[in-house]
Amino acid sequence: MEVSHRSRQRTRERIIAGVLLASGLISILVTAGIVFALASETVGFFRLVSLKQFLTDPKWTPMFDPAHYGILSLLAGTTIIAVGSALVAVPLGLATAIYLSEYAPDRLRRVLKPVLELLAGIPTVVYGYFALTFVTPLLQKLIPSLDVFNALSAFITVGIMITPLISSMSEDAMLAVPRSLREAAYALGATRLEVAVKVVLPAAFSGVVASVILAVSRAVGETMIVALAAGSTPKLSLNPLQSIQTMTGFIAQVSQGDLEAGSAAYKAIYTVGMSLFATTLGLNLFAKWLTRRFQRGGRL
Question: 60-295 in CATH: which number?
């Protein structure tokens, strides 16, 4: 009986291991399929458009005559949204995480955290209309010359949207820091703020970096907010008061089935998608490098 029980247990363990392996392989295959679909069309695009034009041309007008295929204007718009939203979300998110993990009573934390995480569940199209109908008119009272479609309103709203990601994940990382570190710092006479900033935050650095990178990646890939609030005017400018177009905004604008399959404009959709993929991959590699450098005692 005991041998039979052990045999059944090993069989169940093999089945579980096989299911987990299959899950991992499926995720790898899906990623490989996405990369292959993007790469195949991207190669075709560069057979029609030179890489030099793609990287140096300041104009992006693939649907007009003469056509221009300079990715710089879309990169500039995406950079404004990503950096601007990070400037909004990182201070708010980290301050909220520090308060929830170090200052808030347990009862208040149980209420505040779920309410804060509700913001992450709001559809982005709702955020887009919020930016267009509330944030932009409010900003126009402060800046009368502000365009109706502008990057400032868009990145403020995107920053509000990604704040719960940073605050929730950073708080989880801070709560995972051993209590003994806090007690040792208090024993040395440190204040609660000093404990939070100089002990807990560095100890939870890898989790905080992961939350920030995930949030910035979400901002880079955001579509509806920038499409509704920022407009669709690709410009090689870092002025947040103007209408811009991001890489995702371009894909949303032209992916309506009106382009001729096989044309350069059609293949440009996949090329921009590949650029987005490369940007997100670069952010993740940078996060891993930064985390390893910090864990080894290196300076930032």
Answer: 1.10.3720.10
